[in-house]
Amino acid sequence: MKGRKMFPKDRIIWLHERIRCGGYPNAALEAERFGISERQAHRDIQMLRQDLGAPLSFDRARNGFFYTASDYSLPDYVKSSDVESGVSLIASSEEAGGVSAQMTIPYTAEIEVPSKLAAVELGRYIIRKTGKNIYLCEFRNPDLFIGMLLASGERISVRSPEWLRKRVVEACSALAEANKD
């Protein structure tokens, strides 16, 4: 990403995803990845910890950060594609004495993914590996998640929850029916 101007929000999301997936990122790694100073990377980490309430801790053995609570999720306004509204929301919430934007509780699903490449493609959703080719995923929009499963072109199996499995079957049946000759 060197040479490309990145908003702090993009770096925060990158940090969150690396931490959530057990990557143990640190300021030096972020600085190298985005072509910024280590000082700026430390400010990003501080923003994640203080302004966004992330339960961060540093593991000296792994030389990187991890979450002390596995259920931490970034507020929706950070993930918004509209940077200006996200920044103004952060500013207004800070004036009110803290971050107060409402967060939505994400859905979770356990899926079986036969190929490592498909698992990499679904990396933004994967929280952790729970068994051989089995992953726990977190998502906020079921339709987008199902779309990603279909777009992978792999034989991905939804193990749980049952409501999501039924929704996948219904979506595939509707597509198949609409595309019959």
- Please describe the biggest sheet, giving its number of strands, its sense, and whether it closes into a barrel: 4 strands, antiparallel
The mean pLDDT is: 80
Content-based structural category: alpha+beta
Please tell me what the overall shape is: elongated
Count of individual helical segments: 8
Strands, count? 6
Order of helix and strand elements from N to C terminus: HHHEEHHEHEEHEH
Query: Which stretches of 5+ consecutive residues score pLDDT under 50?
Result: 1-6, 81-103
* Proportion of strand residues: 15-25%
- Helix % is 40-55%
Straight-line N-to-C gap:
45 Å
Report the radius of gyration as a whole number of Å. Answer: 19 Å
Give the strand order of the largest sheet, numbering strands 1, 2, ... along the chain.
4-5-3-6
Compact summary:
This protein is α+β, with helices and mostly antiparallel strands. It has helices at 8-20, 27-34, 38-51, 76-79, 83-95, 116-121, 142-151, 162-178; strands at residues 56-59, 64-67, 107-112, 126-131, 134-139, 157-160.
Report on the structure:
The protein is α+β, with helices and mostly antiparallel strands and 181 residues long. 47% of the residues lie in helices and 17% in strands. It is built from 8 helices and 6 strands. The strands form 2 sheets. Strands 4-5-3-6 form a 4-stranded antiparallel sheet, with helices on one face. The chain has a two-stranded antiparallel sheet with strand order 1-2. Strand 4 and strand 5 form a beta hairpin. The protein is elongated and about 60 Å long. The termini are far apart.
